[in-house]
Amino acid sequence: MLTIYHNPKCSKSRQTLELIKENSSKEPTIVEYLKEPITENDIVQLLTQLSCSPIEMMRIKETEFKEQNLKGADDKTLIAAMVATPKLIERPIVSDGNRAIIGRPPSNVLTLC
Questions:
Q1: CA-CA 20 to 30 A from 65: which of 58, 75, 77, 96?
Q2: Tens of pLDDT, residues 62-89
């Protein structure tokens, strides 16, 4: 089963969702992470599945990143910032429960379909 952490206002996220629907036999679970709270445990799990550091899972060009003075922050602070400000989470992220992929470009997710 695939889960997409989705922002419907994002063109890359919409494109990724369409690719999943076209290439997977199962309907994905859609988590609109800007509306549905994402927990610290969720983020830690995604980081493990992505095999990346918190900074690699963040949108560092967002105004909120600068406003919160996150450049050079430790991992715990970055994770807390993503929980408090989900807009900072890179999008979309697709997980199969074991591995996760950031859908930039959207075709990245085809390895999970």
A1: 96
A2: 999 999 999 999 999 999 999 999 999 9
